[in-house]
Structures are given as C-alpha cells and as structure tokens.
Specification:
Blueprint: H1 3-37, H2 42-61, H3 70-90, H4 94-110, H5 114-121
C-alpha cells in the first residue's frame, strides 16, 4: 500500500474516533439529564446539570479550551465521565453506567493518539 493510501485511512480512522468522542460527550450530557430528571427538582436539574457540565467542558476540556492544559483537560474529562456514569448508576441503570464508562475510556484513549489528537487541534 502506498503512503498516501495509508495516510488516508489514518485520517478516516481519526475522524471516526473524534466523532465517537463527540457522541460520548452527548451521552454524558444525557446521563446527567437523566439524573436531573430523577432528582427532587426535575424541571430545574434536567437542564441545569448538563448545562453546567457543558460550560466546564468548554472552558477546560475541549481541544481549544481557554483554560485547559494537559493536566486540567484530563482531570475534567475524568470528572465529567465519572459523574455521568455515577449519575446513571444512581438512577438505577448500572449496566448503562459501566458501558458508558468503558466506552469513554476506550474512545478518549484512542483520541490521545498523536495523529488523532492533531486532527482535533488543527486550524480550520
């Protein structure tokens, strides 16, 4: 196989992984919404919990976060996906909680591969 064909497959794989990371973020927000809906103040927390996590993600964990360094970004990701999994567990969905946590570990681990990480931070 030629180098350009191999590079093409690396790019396709990289963007697939990044799409799965985005899906993982959406699943985490959904899990927090499920927890919010099952709380004592469902009409408030169903949207407030995901919103607060989205703001934290944008500030500290996104590829172009203004306050995110390597240690901060990793810590916030662990916190967000851990809380999302805990939220599912607390609402009576332990299988989904473990599945979300495993999925999060795999896709975020793959996203740390340098060639994939470079795709996420490349200028548009």
């Amino acid at each position: 196989m030629s180098t350009s064909v191999e590079n093409r497959w690396v790019v396709i794989f990289g963007w697939t992984v990044l799409a799965l990371v985005f899906l993982d973020e959406l699943l985490a927000m959904t899990a927090l919404g499920v927890w919010g809906w099952s709380s004592a103040a469902p009409w408030l927390l169903v949207w407030l919990a995901p919103l607060l996590v989205m703001l934290a993600w944008a500030a500290f964990a996104s590829p172009k976060a203004p306050y995110g360094g390597p240690g901060v970004r990793t810590s916030v990701k662990i916190l967000v996906f851990g809380l999302a999994s805990l939220a599912l567990w607390m609402t009576g969905h332990p299988t989904l909680a473990v599945s979300l946590l495993a999925f999060s570990i795999v896709v975020n681990g793959l996203a740390m591969i340098p060639s994939i990480r470079d795709l996420a931070t490349a200028p548009a």
